[in-house]
Design a protein that fits this description.
CATH class of chain A: Mainly Alpha
Order of helices and strands of chain A: HHHHHHHHHH
Radius of gyration of chain A: 18 Å
Number of domains of chain A: 1
Largest sheet of chain A: none
Distance between the termini of chain A: 37 Å
Structural class of chain A: mainly alpha
Strand content of chain A: under 5%
Number of strands of chain A: 0
Oligomer: homodimer
DNA sequence: GTCTATACATGGATAGAC
DNA sequence: GTCTATCCATGTATAGAC
């Protein structure tokens, strides 16, 4: 189920968990390729070799950081695909993604925003068509261009809206509500779509 | 680092322009820090040193690539700030930005999406508060959180919506229309019920 | 003016001491 | 398990040949 309260990447803990938390902070601030293993080591007060003890490569760290979110996304997509009504599909995706973003604000920004991260995910076969699956769930079959544009703005806009300093002062519950509100406003197109077919 | 103005008259022509075009393509695809000078040189069929002949540093290339867009953004902000009605201010910003994005689809993605690029801009004093100026123009004075969220989604969503493969098949004029449509839908908020806060 | 050659730093990664 | 020392590739940048 998509409704759990813990962030995907724990902020406390020992060994790997602290490493992942530090890496996430740096990734979110500097980008993946703007973050060196040295920086991660420094943030933890250890040496590069200590980092390599936990993960064999930098790519592994990136994957470890983002894969919880990817798995959750996949679960959301799967859950939505099992719904039969279009309305329920869209709603499941929206609520699931917004929830995921709000629960761990910076993680999703890395996932969606960083081209290096996206390349790494592609190379390792993670989320190949997941992104398209989610878009398809939102726009439905035979979407008109206006819907595609709206969904694109929505999907890429949500991530920054969850992370940027602009919304830092807004509480989780309220942010969640506003995001869903925006999503519904964007997707409620007043075009009957009868014209095309 | 003296403020030596470069040979301001790019008389010999297409050298730099081709370089900037190649750099932009790579930045848009791999990100700034994922792009090496070697890649740029290879794309042009020259050597790294030839690239250094045109620009002294990599940062200079980044600045040269994005500064036309920044200047346009600044002009848009300035024009909007001179309008007296709020409606005209918002409209000027929206139309200006959407226009800029559509005219130049990948450039804006680099500008907004790449953390390395943003760091470079900050370090060189370019667009310090430009981003905040534009947000302020859109949300107006004393914005409620819902408006801030909507504007954040909009501003960060537009760039990917202008560049991503999803919209690649949509013509400029149509894309422009849909983007403006989305923007207006997002910003036309009904006030949240007073009970909540 | 353009490239060759190269300096110099950093980054990723490994072997092995403790 | 964690760190020291180190290797090697790459990246930025420069000096100087042509």
């Amino acid at each position: 189920m998509a409704t759990q309260l813990e962030p995907a990447v724990p902020r406390e803990g020992t060994g790997r968990k602290k490493l992942l938390a530090a890496a996430l902070d740096l990734f979110a601030e500097r980008g993946v390729s703007g973050t060196s293993l040295q920086m991660i080591a420094d943030a933890l007060g250890v040496t590069k070799a200590a980092v390599y003890y936990h993960y064999k490569t930098k790519d592994d760290i990136v994957l470890a950081v983002v894969s919880p979110a990817i798995e959750e996304l996949a679960a959301i997509a799967g859950e939505a695909e099992r719904k039969r009504s279009r309305t329920a599909q869209v709603e499941t995706v929206l609520v699931g993604i917004v929830d995921l973003i709000v629960r761990n604000r910076s993680l999703y920004a890395v996932l969606q925003g960083d081209l290096t991260a996206i390349h790494i995910l592609r190379e390792h076969g993670a989320f190949p068509e997941l992104s398209n699956r989610i878009l398809a769930l939102i726009v439905g079959p035979d979407p008109d261009p206006g819907t595609i544009v709206a969904a694109s703005i929505l999907l890429s806009g949500l991530h920054e809206a969850g992370f940027g300093p602009r919304v830092a002062g807004i509480g989780d519950e309220e942010l969640r509500g506003h995001m869903l509100d925006c999503a519904r406003r964007l997707l409620r197109h007043r075009r009957p779509s009868a014209a095309t077919a």
